[in-house]
Amino acid sequence: MNRREFLPNSMIMKFNGLTPAPVKRGVSQRINLLFIIDQLCETGGAERCLLNMIRLLPKDRFHCSLVTFKIDRSGIFGNLPCPVHVFPLRRTYDWNALGVARQIRHLIRSDNIHIVHTFFETADLWGGMVAKSSSGVRLVSSRRDMGILRRPKHALAYRALRTMFDLVLTVSEQVRTFCLEADGLPPSKVQTLYNGIELDRIAAAAGTDELRKVLQLENASHVIATVGHVRRVKGVDVYVRAAARVCQDFPRALFLVIGDSSEPEYFRELQELVRSQGVGENVRFLGPSEAVFSILKLCDVFCLPSRSEGFSNALIEAMACGLPSVATRVGGNAEALEDGRSGFLVENEDVAAMAERLQLLLRDPKLARQMGKAAQEAVAERFSATAMIDQLMGIYEGLLNGR
Question: Is residue 315 located within the same domain as residue 223?
Answer without folding.
Answer: yes
